[in-house]
Amino acid sequence: MSEPNFDAIFSAIETKKPHLISLLAEAVAIPSVSAEPERRPDIVRMVEWVKKHLEQLGATCELAQPGDQQLSAGSTIPLPPILLGKLGCDPKKKTLLVYAHLDVQPASREDGWHTEPFTLTEKDGKLFGRGSTDDKFCLEGMEESGSEGLEETLKARKDSFLSDVSFTCISDNYWLGTTKPCLTYGLRGICYFTVEVAGPTQDLHSGIYGGTLYEPMSDLVWVLSQLLSKDGQIMIPGLADHVAPLTETEREMYAKMDFDHDEYAKHINTTKLLKATKEETLMARMRYPSLSVHGIEGAFHGAGAKTVIPCKVTGKFSIRLVPDMKPKVIDELVVKHLNELWAQRGSPNRFNPISDPVLITASTTPTCFSAKHLKIQLFGATAFHSGPAWLADPHGPNFQAGARAIKRVYGVEPDYTREGGSIPVTLTFQELTGAPVMLLPIGANDDMAHSQNEKINVTNLVKGTKTLAAYILELAKA
Amino acid sequence: MSEPNFDAIFSAIETKKPHLISLLAEAVAIPSVSAEPERRPDIVRMVEWVKKHLEQLGATCELAQPGDQQLSAGSTIPLPPILLGKLGCDPKKKTLLVYAHLDVQPASREDGWHTEPFTLTEKDGKLFGRGSTDDKFCLEGMEESGSEGLEETLKARKDSFLSDVSFTCISDNYWLGTTKPCLTYGLRGICYFTVEVAGPTQDLHSGIYGGTLYEPMSDLVWVLSQLLSKDGQIMIPGLADHVAPLTETEREMYAKMDFDHDEYAKHINTTKLLKATKEETLMARMRYPSLSVHGIEGAFHGAGAKTVIPCKVTGKFSIRLVPDMKPKVIDELVVKHLNELWAQRGSPNRFNPISDPVLITASTTPTCFSAKHLKIQLFGATAFHSGPAWLADPHGPNFQAGARAIKRVYGVEPDYTREGGSIPVTLTFQELTGAPVMLLPIGANDDMAHSQNEKINVTNLVKGTKTLAAYILELAKA
């Protein structure tokens, strides 16, 4: 096989910049919010939009129907279809599975957006819009769907659609900083917990009843206050024993990474981070567990003053998992600790600690690039409860191809990072295909995925497209 | 003055029972919810309805316009008019000021009501409906209005409308149990606090950032956990020094009260109350302060799982005040304690403890009874920030008249109670008129004011009307 003409491809992509932006604008304009059932038709529209574009590229597409989604109100609505695409079918070639997602987080102007979230708006070289960086930025196609049903859909196709996958690439995370690209070889997992404290049958007037009863809210804030020390250490006995020990080689990697500790502190608007050094902060994000308290259901949460004693309150927190923490073992440790705290508390209220009570919706999409050197499979959509961490070998052929692509486009060696967040489908792919998975992020760390004023830089969009193209070409050579 | 014919009056009231119930049904059908701006026209309608009834009784009415209400969204709407009524104007007679309120708490079927909340529904001798017991139950008139502006309206009329008030009667609280009537000579006051902890400029993804920063939510739940011991003791240093000492006479009063400790525990659905004995529980409600944590603004509060790190969270709690606690002093003690806790915590987040940040809306109404023995003044509406406790002498002529009325209707001596809740306008009346105030409750303690399935018993409605009539007649004799 002859060496591909990288320069010609890069210059073709450069020429297509306005087209790339207008495609992204079309995609952003479809408010495919998976958390809002009333937006479900928009997700279906998004899927159809992607399918059309894939078929124009010559892909053969299938829409898998994963069934119904159970809503918390007790009703059900159909899950959006899962789009599975194939481009090329030469059995002599390797198969690359490309994967991202097209559903987005909710967004509205009132949340603090400076522009309309579902109108792609360019300003100072940045493209603002919900989904611009998470995850609608790819060249040709992307597709969104709710959450549930992907794993089943994939398992059912283990020996067909997935049988000849040689590599998987997922582009759904971010650089460490704003200038240097990276490849990602690890993800933290997650266990989600709710702690319910129930007392009176209904809310009570704090004037009439206050002082006579054990109030569920006081019990709950105390329990939640006993999970972390004031310097952010997780206070679950035994949990630290399950964290893989740090090796010297690994420690050196953190020292070399392009990461500005002070800039990071400024970015999150604090005068003091939990950790004192760059290396410790990187390790806290990448290779150690963390615990966050997210909120309380059932208590007064509005503005102003209300004097009710809530009768039943439910605290929510989650723990990010790292190797070698197993979700089931961690669940047990946490529930044991919660029950011990409760015994200490001595309250007559009813206590119910639950691990992973609900689905945490994740989402996925096919991304596609029209390289003829590889047979490419495309598709999307998943759901997950808790999930374990993921750790890959950053020295295999998949990562080598990614690194060469980055070198070609950016002229530098990438950092090798691990991501603090969780993309559980990564593990599903690895397990079902038995082939290596790589995360190849395109966006910068200030893109504000999941938050207000999400954006992607025009340069990231264009260079990212070149990188994905070069990666496929490099992989074909491997 | 000849002895009034109590029997004839009681039997006239008995005959009018269907009329009483139909009046109450008309009043309940007007959804005069003061917390919902869109219901404001319903409050005006309620005021007009009462005014019409008062004028039919011969009262001279004035509608005072207290100005505008500032809504949290930044807009304003007009406060409802305050109705001031006079019935009789013989300067040789004493003047009784009768006071209650007509605005109600929000209510909707979905909250767990078994009947339509704004349709009075009779079942097993109980009249269910929002406002049935709080506070639309009086015979002839009642009026509702939002909150703000009453105090100013009253102050401006200190030397006119209020100049010759000899006694005040407010019927806006409840019996201790379900069978024995009481007169109430004390109320707890309230101080309301918010504690804001602010960190990042916007919400963060707990996967990407978790483990590196001091999370505001962890700081806040810890601060809130340090306000009460696990057995419900307030942990604000110095606060207990401001509580008036218990006297032996007072202790004996609690021992004599008609109150079933086990029944109370069952009523609030607990196997263990904070206090072990009837007397201690009564004192905890009536003569000791209490602290309740109401909720958190800014954190995740919905159903399901969300993995965000909230950037700014605001805890809400209040303390019920008793003699001799002065709100200003208590505010200072609490804010000092919060700041000390914060110094201990050592977090770089921004901490802002505020006392009494917002108006707590209260509400009032005129109630009227057409006795000719007294000149009666009628009216309603107030607003308050925090308010101190109130304590009256239960042995003066106002209480004696109330006790004789109860004896006539129920055949028993009333209990003399203090109420755990706050009705700050009580103090306003006492201060502006210089005359004694008495609380004369009509409803039973299971009437569920402010909660789902609020009701008043038919017997309480009828006997309460008789009691109010007898009270006015007894007061005229005093």
TrEMBL record, chains A, B:
Top-rank taxon: Eukaryota
InterPro entries (alphabetical): Cyt/Met_Dipeptidase, Peptidase_M20, Peptidase_M20_dimer
The keyword Calcium is annotated on this UniProt entry: no
GO biological process, one term: proteolysis
Keywords for the protein's UniProt record, in alphabetical order: Hydrolase, Metal-binding, Protease
Key word Metal-binding present: yes
GO molecular function, one term: peptidase activity
PANTHER family, alphabetized: BETA-ALA-HIS DIPEPTIDASE, CARNOSINE DIPEPTIDASE 2, ISOFORM A
Official protein name in the record: Peptidase
Species this protein is from: Pristionchus pacificus
Lineage: Eukaryota, Metazoa, Ecdysozoa, Nematoda, Chromadorea
